C-alpha cells in the first residue's frame, strides 16, 4: 500500500496547526518559569540573581528557552511555505525541548540542592506554570509534527514505554555498581561507583556463600537439563509416534496432573525425599525439577506431530527398528525443540525460589542462587546486602536473559499450546 | 469422543473377561501362574523371564509383609499410639518412645497402594505371557527367547522402554504427592496435630464444610479471598491482553523501524527472572523506597504513598505492576499472530478504500479474538495462580485480623502457601488446593477442547 502513495504527502491540516503550537510554546516564555522566593537572610537575596546565572541546574532552562524561540521562527516560516524540511526541524526542536525539560526536571534538583542556596524543595515549588505549559506544548508539538510527516507518532509512545519498562532494570544495574550500602536511598544516581559489590559476592562468603550457590545452581541445572531433555524427548516421541493401548490414558493423565497447583504437593515431596533420606541435598532438587519438567512434553509432542510420518514408515519398511527411527530420523530433525527443551529445563533451577526453600529449609550450603539472593533481602540483611543482591541478580539475569531471547519463538508456541501455529 | 469412550469401556470390561477366559482355557501351568508368577514361563522353558516374574513377586511379598503392612494396617485410623514418655529403669530417666507417625502411615500407604496397582499390571502381563506361551506350544511354534523379548523392547514394545522412566518420575514426584495432599484434605493435619509428636486422623468432609460456612472466620476469608482472586484474574487478564495487543500492533506497524530492537527491549523484562524484577519493584515501591523518596523530594507529596501497605493502593499497585510484567508477554505472543493475518485481507480492504481504523476493527480485532481465545483462558488460569506477582510484591498483605491468616491482596494460591509453609495448616491448605484445581482444570479442559489440538493431532501426519 505504501508503495502506491510515494512520496507521502504531508497532512496539511496538521502542518497548519504547527505554527500555532510553536507560537504558544514561545508564549510560555512570557509566563513565569521560575519562582525564587525572597528568603530571610541577606545572603540568599544577594545571590538570587547569581543563582539564576551561575547555578548549572537552572541554566538548563536557558536551552529550553532557546528551543522555544527557534520553534517559533521555524513555525512561522511554515506559514509562508509548508515544506517538509521545516516540519522535520520542528520534530527535532520539540524532541530537544521535551527531553531537555525532563532532564531538567530529573537532575536540576540535585545541583540546586548542592548549591546550598535553595531552602525549600526545588522544582515543583519553584518551577512555575510556564515550564509545565512548555513541556506539555512541546510534547503535543512533537506528536503533531510526526503525524504531519505521516511518520508514526508511535515512536514517542514506544520510547516512553521502553523507558518505563527498562528503568527498573537499569536501576538494578546502577545499584549493583553503587559504592554506598543501604537499601532505601532517596536518589537514583549513586554518589560513588564501585565494582566491589561483585567482587565481595565472591570473596566474602562467611554468611552468604554466593560462589558456592552459583556452582550448586550450575550443577543442578546442567544435570536437570540433561535428564529432563532425555525424558521429555522420550515421552514426546512415544506419545506422538507410537500407538499402544494406554496411550489415551497417558495423554489425559498428563493433562490433569499438570493442572494441580505445584505448591500443594511440595510439602509431600519434602516428606517423600526425607523418607528416602534425600532431603536437603542437591540430588533431591535435580529429581524434583526433572520430575516436574517431564510434564512439559506437550510442546515437543506438538513438534513431533508435524514431522511427516511417511519418513519413519519408509524407514520401518526398510527394516529399521523403532529405536533407530527415533535416533536417526526424529532426533536429527528436532534440533529447535531440543534446544527449547534443554534451555527451559536449564533455566528452571535459576528462577525457582519456592521449591528449593521448602526442600533446603536452613541448609545454607545447598542453596541455589535464587533462594540465596532471596534471603539477602530479608529484613536483617537488606541494609548491608542490598547492593550485593543487585550484583548477584545481574549475574543471574544476564545468562538467563540471553538464553530466553534465544528461545522466545518456541516460548510463544508453548504458551499458546500450538493453537496459533503459523 | 463417544465412540472412544465406548471402546474404552469395552476394553475395561475385557480385562476381567480376558482373565476368566485365560483361566478357563489355560493348562495347569497357566492356571498356576495366577498364584505363582512366572510359573507358566518357567515350565515352558522361558527361564530368565520366568525367574524375573517370580523374583518380582517375591520382592513384592517381602515388601508388603516386611515393610508396608505396619503402615497399611493403620491406614483406617492413621495411628493409635502417640508418642509416650516411659520410665526407663536402666537409665533412670523418662525416655520418649516414638509412637505412630500419621504422616508416614499415610505416605507409605499411598505408596504401597500405588505399588500394588503397578504390581497388578505386572501380574496380568505374567498371565498373558504364560497363556501366549501355552498357545504357541499348542500350535507347535517356537517360543520367543529372552533375546527376542529384548528386541521387542525397541520395536513392538518400544513404548514401554521409553515411558517407564518418565512415568516413574511423574508418579514419584507429582502423582504420589498430589494424591497424598488430596487425602490430607480429609484429615485434621494442622498445627495442633503435628507428627511425630501428635497424630492426625480422618475427619471426613469437615474441612470442606468449614470452608463453605462451618467455620465463620475461615468461610468468610475464603469467600473474600476467592472474590479478590476472581476480580484480580479478570482485570489482570483483560488489561494485559488489550494493552499488550496495542503494543504489539504499534511495534508491528508497517512504518516502524527497528522492530527487533523494540521487541527486544520488552522481551528483556520477561527474561529477567521474576524474583529479581519483582523484588526490585517491591523495593522501589516501598514506603521508604526511591519512588516515594523522589516524589517527596520533588514536592509532589508530603507523606509516603503506601503503595504496598494500604488495601486499595496495594490492590491497584499489584494490578499496575502486573501490567509491567504481563504486557510484554502478550506483546510477544500476539506479535506472531498479527503477522499471520493473511495480507490479502488488508490488500483487498485497502483497494476498497477502507481506513486503517476500519481495517483494525473489521479485520485485526475479530481475527485476534478468534485465534487467541484459548490463550486468553490460559492467561486467566495463569492469573488465578499468579503466585509470583503477589508473593514477591506484597506477600499477600496488608494482613488483617478479620481474615484467617490472609491479607487483602492474597490470592488463593498465596493463602495456600502461607497456610502450608508458615502455619502448617496442611488440611485446610489441601482443601483450598483442591478447589483451585477444580477451577483451573475446568477452564483448562475448556481450552483443550476449544483449541482442537487434540482432534487435530493427526492432521499433519
Summarize the structure in short:
The complex is a heterodimer of chains A (422) and B (461). Chain A has 422 residues and is mainly α.
Describe the structure.
The complex is a heterodimer of chains A (about 425) and B (about 450). By secondary structure, chain A is mainly alpha-helical. Chain A folds into two domains: about 10-150; about 200-415, MetI-like (MetI-like fold). Chain A is about 70% helix and about 0% strand. In chain A, helix 17 (about 335-350) packs antiparallel against helix 20. The longest helix of chain A is centred in the C-terminal third of the chain and has 37 residues, at about 380-415. Chain A is flat. The relative contact order of chain A is 0.09. The model of chain A is unreliable at about 1-5, about 45-55 and about 420 (pLDDT under 50). By secondary structure, chain B is an all-alpha fold. Chain B folds into two domains: about 10-205, no CATH class; about 210-450, MetI-like fold, CATH 1.10.3720.10. Helices cover about 70% and strands about 0% of the residues of chain B. Chain B contains 18 helices and two strands. A two-stranded antiparallel sheet of chain B has the order 1-2. In chain B, helix 8 packs across helix 9 (about 215-250), helix 10 packs across helix 13 (about 310-340) and helix 11 (about 275-285) packs parallel to helix 16. Chain B is flat. Chains A and B meet through helix 8, helix 10, helix 11, helix 12 and helix 13 of A and helix 1, helix 5, helix 7, helix 9 and helix 10 of B.
Mean of residue pLDDT of chain B?
82
- CATH structural fold name of the largest domain in chain B: MetI-like fold
Assembly state (oligomeric): heterodimer
- Runs of chain A in which pLDDT lies below 50 for 5 or more consecutive residues are 1-7, 44-56, 418-422
In total, how many domains does the architecture of chain B comprise?
2
Low-pLDDT runs of 5+ residues of chain B are none
How much of the residues of chain B is beta strand, in percent? under 5%
Mean pLDDT of chain A: 78
Gyration radius of chain A (Cα, Å) is 31 Å
Question: Percent range for helical residues of chain B?
Answer: 55-70%
Strand content of chain A: under 5%
Q: CATH first level of the largest domain in chain A: which class?
A: Mainly Alpha
Number of strands of chain B: 2
Per CATH, which architecture of the largest domain in chain A?
Answer: Orthogonal Bundle
Put simply, the count of helices of chain A is 20
Amino acid at each position: 500500500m505504501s508503495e502506491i502513495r510515494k512520496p507521502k504527502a504531508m497532512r496539511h491540516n496538521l502542518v497548519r496547526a504547527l505554527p500555532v503550537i510553536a507560537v504558544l510554546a514561545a508564549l510560555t516564555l512570557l509566563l513565569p518559569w521560575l519562582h525564587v522566593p525572597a528568603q530571610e537572610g541577606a545572603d540568599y537575596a544577594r545571590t538570587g540573581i547569581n543563582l539564576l546565572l551561575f547555578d548549572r541546574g537552572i541554566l538548563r532552562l536557558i536551552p529550553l528557552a532557546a528551543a522555544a524561540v527557534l520553534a517559533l521562527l521555524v513555525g512561522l516560516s511554515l506559514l509562508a511555505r509548508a515544506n517538509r524540511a521545516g516540519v522535520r526541524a520542528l520534530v527535532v526542536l520539540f524532541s530537544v525541548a521535551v527531553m531537555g525539560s525532563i532532564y531538567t526536571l530529573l537532575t536540576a534538583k540535585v545541583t540546586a540542592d548542592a548549591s546550598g542556596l535553595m531552602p525549600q524543595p526545588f522544582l515543583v515549588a519553584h518551577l512555575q506554570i510556564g515550564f509545565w505549559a512548555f513541556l506539555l506544548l512541546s510534547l503535543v508539538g512533537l506528536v503533531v509534527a510526526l503525524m504531519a510527516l505521516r511518520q508514526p507518532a508511535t515512536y514517542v509512545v514506544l520510547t516512553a514505554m521502553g523507558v518505563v519498562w527498562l528503568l527498573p532494570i537499569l536501576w538494578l544495574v546502577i545499584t549493583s555498581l553503587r559504592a554506598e550500602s543501604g537499601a532505601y536511598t532517596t536518589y537514583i544516581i549513586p554518589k560513588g561507583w564501585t565494582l566491589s559489590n561483585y567482587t565481595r559476592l565472591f570473596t566474602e562468603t562467611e554468611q552468604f556463600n554466593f560462589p558456592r550457590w552459583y556452582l550448586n545452581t550450575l550443577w543442578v541445572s546442567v544435570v536437570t537439563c540433561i535428564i529432563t531433555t532425555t525424558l521429555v524427548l522420550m515421552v514426546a516421541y512415544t506419545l506422538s509416534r507410537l500407538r499402544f493401548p494406554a496411550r489415551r490414558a497417558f495423554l489425559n493423565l498428563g493433562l490433569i496432573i499438570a493442572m494441580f497447583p505445584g505448591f500443594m504437593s511440595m510439602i509431600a515431596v519434602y516428606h517423600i525425599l526425607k523418607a528416602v533420606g534425600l532431603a536437603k541435598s542437591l540430588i533431591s532438587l535435580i529429581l524434583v525439577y526433572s520430575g516436574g519438567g517431564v510434564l512439559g512434553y506437550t510442546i515437543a509432542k506438538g513438534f513431533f506431530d508435524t514431522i511427516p510420518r511417511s519418513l519413519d514408515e519408509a524407514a520401518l519398511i526398510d527394516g529399521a527398528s523403532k529405536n533407530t527411527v527415533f535416533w536417526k530420523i526424529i532426533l536429527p530433525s528436532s534440533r529447535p525443540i531440543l534446544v527449547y527443551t534443554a534451555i527451559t529445563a536449564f533455566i528452571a533451577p535459576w528462577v525457582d525460589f519456592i521449591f528449593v526453600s521448602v526442600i533446603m529449609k536452613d541448609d545454607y550450603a545447598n542453596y541455589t542462587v535464587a533462594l540465596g539472593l532471596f534471603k539477602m533481602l530479608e529484613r536483617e540483611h537488606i541494609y548491608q546486602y542490598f547492593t550485593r543482591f543487585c550484583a548477584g541478580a545481574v549475574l543471574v539475569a544476564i545468562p538467563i536473559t540471553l538464553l530466553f531471547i534465544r528461545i522466545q519463538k518456541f516460548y510463544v508456541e508453548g504458551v499458546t499450546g500450538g493453537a496459533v501455529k503459523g | 469422543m463417544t465412540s472412544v469412550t465406548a471402546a474404552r469401556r469395552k476394553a475395561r470390561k475385557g480385562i476381567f473377561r480376558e482373565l476368566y477366559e485365560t483361566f478357563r482355557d489355560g493348562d495347569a501351568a497357566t492356571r498356576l501362574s495366577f498364584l505363582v508368577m512366572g510359573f507358566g514361563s518357567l515350565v515352558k522353558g522361558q527361564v530368565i523371564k520366568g525367574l524375573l516374574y517370580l523374583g518380582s513377586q517375591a520382592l513384592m511379598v517381602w515388601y508388603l509383609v516386611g515393610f508396608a503392612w505396619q503402615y497399611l494396617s493403620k491406614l483406617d485410623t492413621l495411628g493409635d499410639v502417640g508418642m509416650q514418655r516411659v520410665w526407663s529403669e536402666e537409665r533412670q530417666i523418662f525416655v520418649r518412645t516414638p509412637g505412630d507417625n500419621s504422616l508416614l502411615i499415610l505416605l507409605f500407604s499411598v505408596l504401597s497402594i500405588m505399588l500394588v496397582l503397578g504390581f497388578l499390571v505386572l501380574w496380568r502381563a505374567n498371565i498373558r505371557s504364560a497363556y501366549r506361551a501355552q498357545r504357541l506350544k499348542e500350535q507347535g511354534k517356537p517360543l520367543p527367547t529372552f533375546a527376542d523379548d529384548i528386541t521387542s523392547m525397541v520395536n513392538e514394545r518400544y513404548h514401554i522402554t521409553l515411558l517407564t522412566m518418565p512415568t516413574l518420575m511423574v508418579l514419584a514426584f507429582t502423582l504420589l504427592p498430589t494424591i497424598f495432599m488430596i487425602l490430607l484434605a480429609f484429615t485434621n493435619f494442622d498445627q495442633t496435630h503435628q507428627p511425630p509428636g501428635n497424630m492426625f486422623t480422618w475427619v471426613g468432609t469437615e474441612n470442606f464444610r468449614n470452608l463453605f460456612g462451618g467455620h465463620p472466620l475461615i468461610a468468610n476469608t475464603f469467600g473474600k479471598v476467592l472474590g479478590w482472586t476472581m476480580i484480580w484474574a479478570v482485570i489482570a487478564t483483560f488489561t494485559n491482553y488489550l494493552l499488550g495487543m496495542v503494543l504489539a500492533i504499534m511495534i508491528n506497524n508497517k512504518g516502524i523501524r527497528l522492530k527487533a530492537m523494540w521487541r527486544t527491549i520488552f522481551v528483556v523484562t520477561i527474561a529477567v527472572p521474576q524474583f529479581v524484577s519483582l523484588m526490585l519493584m517491591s523495593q522501589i515501591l516501598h514506603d521508604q523506597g526511591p519512588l516515594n523518596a523522589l516524589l517527596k523530594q520533588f514536592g509532589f507529596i508530603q507523606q509516603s504513598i503506601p503503595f504496598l501497605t494500604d488495601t486499595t493502593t496495594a490492590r491497584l499497585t499489584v494490578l499496575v505492576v502486573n501490567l509491567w510484567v504481563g504486557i510484554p508477554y502478550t506483546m510477544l505472543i500476539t506479535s506472531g499472530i498479527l503477522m499471520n493475518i493473511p495480507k490479502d485481507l488488508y490488500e483487498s480492504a485497502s483497494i476498497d478504500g477502507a481506513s486503517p481504523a476500519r481495517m483494525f476493527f473489521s479485520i485485526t480485532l475479530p481475527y485476534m479474538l478468534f485465534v487467541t481465545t484459548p490463550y486468553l483462558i490460559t492467561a486467566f488460569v495463569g492469573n488465578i495462580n499468579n503466585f509470583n506477582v503477589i508473593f514477591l510484591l506484597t506477600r499477600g498483605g496488608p494482613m488483617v485480623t478479620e481474615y484467617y491468616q490472609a491479607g487483602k491482596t492474597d490470592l488463593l494460591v498465596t493463602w495456600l502457601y502461607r497456610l502450608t509453609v508458615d502455619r502448617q495448616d496442611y488440611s485446610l491448605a489441601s482443601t483450598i488446593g483442591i478447589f483451585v484445581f477444580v477451577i483451573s482444570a475446568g477452564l483448562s479442559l475448556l481450552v483443550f477442547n476449544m483449541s482442537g489440538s487434540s482432534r487435530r493431532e493427526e492432521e499433519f501426519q
